[in-house]
Amino acid sequence: MNHDLPALITRLHTFSGLAHKRDIQQVAQQLRDAWPNPSPNGDDCALIPDGSGYKLLAMEGFINRFVAEDPWFAGWCGVMVNLSDIAAMGGRPLAVVNALWDDALPHAEQILQGMAAASRAYQVPVVGGHTNLRSEQPQLAVAVLGETTHPLSSFAVQPGQTLMVAINLHGRWHPPGYNWDAATHADPLALRQALSLLPAMADEGWIQAAKDISQAGLAGTLVMMLESSGLGAGLDLTQIPIPAGVELEQWLCAFPSFGFLLAVEPQHCDEVAERFARCAISCAAVGQFTAERKLIMQYQQQRACYWDLAQQPLTGMNNH
């Protein structure tokens, strides 16, 4: 299918996942005077110095309607998305905690069953949390602790590095919305092996930075990565791995279960792609990081600016 690139960009800008990321600007402004962490805020996890390495800390909260209407999957995602954040930082998970509010025990049990299933699949313990079963509505937040010795940070991306995308295409849509489920029906061993790839390649020095593709979609997540790095990028839409039968516009808005943006030195691109391929993960070079603070999209012979960070912030989380 052919696309008019400017029209596609206009539609992508209206995607609701971006609006949620813009909300971070207001939070960031209020917390600038809080006691500082040595590492800048804006990566998928907080990076906390700990002896010769680092502890990683992240948290995800979920839209109340999602938790109310799809409790088991919300519980599963509570674990899964946090583990992806740890992996994106080149880390290995240690434990998960939750904050669960609900108005009915049977509904809360479904959330907890989803969390327990993901905990078993990924072999990461749920070690505690906070529970309130007398709430007016279901609410869920989940946090994760991890560790790394070779952190992957968006703040470390350099111009000239190759932009790669690694995505598990072996899934299916989980309606409603754009959730691509490549996890709940997968072999648990395969899930763990795939998630271990990023910290392993971080240790080997093959990957310089990574970011988990979030509900902002591939393009929105890339804008956040560029915001932290103070850079821009060229993105060739025709090179992005896409499942058969899925439209490009859908895929650019999707949360893909296992999907990462990578900054890789050109000489390591083949090694990185081959390592992902061993775990049936599609990985391809889709562009290059540049000094100009713009995300330029290319589709066939068309080129257009998707985002100009010099003119318009997204999250406001940067160190520049």
Characterise this structure:
This protein has 320 residues and is an alpha+beta fold. It folds into 2 domains: 5-25 and 152-308, PurM-like C-terminal domain (Phosphoribosyl-aminoimidazole Synthetase, Chain A, domain 2, Alpha-Beta Complex); 37-148, 2-Layer Sandwich (60s Ribosomal Protein L30, Chain: A), CATH 3.30.1330. It has helices spanning 5-13, 16-22, 24-31, 64-69, 71-88, 105-122, 188-195, 197-204, 217-229, 248-253, 269-277; strands at residues 46-50, 53-61, 92-101, 126-132, 139-148, 162-167, 172-174, 179-181, 207-212, 232-236, 259-264, 282-290, 294-299, 302-308. The model has no long low-confidence stretch (mean pLDDT 95).
Characteristic key phrases:
single chain, 320 residues, alpha+beta, Phosphoribosyl-aminoimidazole Synthetase, Chain A, domain 2, 60s Ribosomal Protein L30, Chain: A, 2 domains, seven-stranded mixed sheet, five-stranded mixed sheet, 11 helices, 34% helix, 29% strand, ThiL-like
Q: Share of helix among residues? A: 25-40%
* CATH architectural arrangement of the largest domain: Alpha-Beta Complex
| The number of domains | 2
Molecular shape: globular
Class of secondary structure makeup: alpha+beta
Question: Helix and strand succession?
Answer: HHHEEHHEHEEEEEHHEHEHEHEEE
- The first-to-last residue Cα distance is 39 Å
Widest β-sheet, arrangement of strands: 9-11-6-12-10-13-14
